[in-house]
Every structure is written in C-alpha cells, then in structure tokens.
Write a structure and sequence with these properties.
The complex is a heterodimer of chains A (162) and B (119). Chain A is an alpha+beta fold. Chain A is 41% helix and 25% strand. Chain A has helices at residues 8-21, 36-50, 54-75, 118-123, 130-138, and strands spanning 23-30, 85-92, 96-103, 141-147, 151-159. The radius of gyration of chain A is 17 Å and the shape is globular. Chain B has 119 residues and is an alpha/beta fold. Chain B has 4 helices and 6 strands. In chain B, strands 1, 2, 3, 4, 5 and 6 form a 6-stranded mixed β-sheet that branches. Classes of the chains: A alpha+beta (162), B alpha/beta (119). Chain A binds chain B through residues 33-34, 36-37, 40, 55, 58, 61-62, 65-66, 69, 72-73, 118-119, 122-123, 125-128, 130-131, 133-134, 137-138, and chain B through 3, 22, 24-26, 55, 57-59, 61-63, 65-66, 68-69, 86, 89-90, 93-96, 98-99.
Chain lengths: 162, 119
C-alpha cells in the first residue's frame, strides 16, 4: 500500500506516527451464538467512534457476525468445551479499521471454500456457506491465517471513505 | 426485552409471519421453528413481513432458503414484504430478488397470492 515516490524515511515516519495513534481493543468470549449481539455492538461502537458512516458500520457488523458465526458453528467440533473461546482483536487506525476474529479450533482451508456462483448456488437452494462470500463482499481486505489447534485468524480491513 | 420475535397471523389461505428484531445465528432457529409449524399445518402460502426487522445475517437468509423448495413443491410460495433498506441490501447482495418476490406492502404480497390463484 506504499504510495509511489515517497522517500523511505518519510514513509517509515508516517507509518510510525499512524501506529502510535492506533487504538487497540480486545474481546475474549465463550463460543455461543448468544454472544453475537455483543460482538456486533463491540465493533459497531468502535467504528462509530472512528467516524464511519452508518452504511459502513452495518457492513462491518455483518462481516464480523459472519466470521464469528463460522467460528461458533464450525471451529470446535468435538473439542473440550473448556477450550471453546474466541477473540475479537480490533485496531483502529486513522484511515482504517482492522478486525481479527481468532479461534484455536480445527481451522479450515480457505482455498477450498470458493466464492459460489451466487445465482446457481441460490437456485440449488442450499443453505450455509454464504458467510465467507458476504465477508469478501463487505470488507476491503480479507486474509486468513490458519494454524489448526493453535491459532486461526480471519483478518478483515475496512477503510474510511475519503 | 426480546431480541427477536415472530408473530403469526392467518388471513384466509395466506399466513403472515411478522418478524421483528435481530435475525442472526442465535435467533434463526426460532424463525425456522415458526416456518416449520406452518408447513406442518399445510399452510404453504406465506408472507414474511420484515417491517420490524432491524438486522439479518446469512444464518437468517439460510432459513428462507431451507424451506422454499418444500413450499413451492406444495404449490405454495413464500413472498417477502416491507423490508427496510438495510435489511433489503443483504438480500440483494446475495441475489435473492431474482428468486423471491419482494413487495413494498403486506397487502400487495397477499393480493399476489389471490392473482396467482385465479390463473
């Protein structure tokens, strides 16, 4: 994302200043669909404080809900219940919001979950699997880091509108 | 305060489900339960009124997808009305308007069943 022709020193300085101003938030909570509302309110409040417009706050809420729902539904099949926690890490930068949804469950291969051809997909009337498609559509950047049993992370980034 | 509520009303052949609040993976089973009750009662002409719905995630959309085949194979349909802007956008993002009929008012949705029946 480096702008062209900006001297390296200035780039580093600017990045450092941006990072200084970044505010970090952390939410750890048990795996339970009952907590989805709390997760949505948590990220919505941060986005609101940053000055995101309502429409984008709605997108962020939905994307984080979808990522969290996937964790709640799929991450911990058969594992010890006591281990069933998830985290939401949020970093509010000047120009963007970064949200990590993290679990320690069995993980998944994002390569294997392709964006469905929505029309054909809907015609088959299959349910589920829409979450990842929505996340990709709603957020500006999505990145998966999967280490099954250790740390699975979906990183989502939304930029402030100019 | 309940975060999600479903109200059922039967008007002649058509059943109306008014859903209110937040429809996510936590509340989707309640909605599905009410829809399954309609199917058990052989009520296949259904209008879902979204007037009071403030939020929907793909778990909620999944409920619509899960029952539609059953409904249509019984000569019925599920029509949707009164979606607010924010909620409609989620349906739109996933291409629902090409597969489900959306109406601005409940009366329009109910009337469409009558028109369909006269055909």
């Amino acid at each position: 994302m480096l702008k062209n022709k900006v001297p390296m020193e200035r780039q580093v300085k600017e990045m450092t200043e941006k990072n200084k101003k970044a505010k970090k938030y952390h939410l750890k909570l048990p795996i339970d669909t009952a907590n989805l509302e709390m997760i949505r309110e948590f990220v919505a409040k941060i986005a609101q404080n940053m000055g995101f417009k309502d429409e984008d706050i709605g997108r962020i809420e939905l994307a984080v809900d979808e990522a969290s729902t996937n964790v709640i539904k799929h991450a911990y099949k058969g594992d010890d219940r006591n281990k069933r926690f998830m985290s939401i890490d949020v970093v509010a930068h000047n120009d963007r919001l970064e949200i990590d949804v993290i679990d320690q469950g069995q993980g998944f291969d994002p390569e294997k979950i392709k964006s469905p051809e929505m029309d054909a997909y809907l015609k088959k009337m299959k349910r589920g699997g829409l979450g990842l498609y929505l996340i990709r559509t709603l957020m500006d950047e999505v990145d998966y880091r999967i280490k099954p049993g250790i740390r699975n992370q979906v990183k989502m980034v939304k930029y402030m509108a100019e | 305060m309940d975060k999600f509520e479903v109200f059922r009303r039967d008007a002649e052949e058509v059943s109306i489900l008014n859903i209110q609040g937040f429809l996510d993976a936590h509340t989707a089973p309640d909605f599905e339960h009410e829809l399954q009750n309609l199917l058990k009662d052989s009520r296949f002409k259904i209008v879902v009124n979204l007037d009071g719905l403030q939020y929907i995630s793909s778990a909620g959309l999944g409920v619509f997808m899960g029952v539609i085949e059953d409904i249509r194979s019984n000569s019925g349909d599920l029509k949707i009305c009164c979606a607010g802007n924010k909620v409609f956008k989620v349906f739109d993002l996933l291409g629902f308007p090409s597969l489900y009929e959306f109406y601005a008012s409940e009366d329009q949705a109910i009337d469409k069943f009558k028109v369909d029946a006269e055909k």
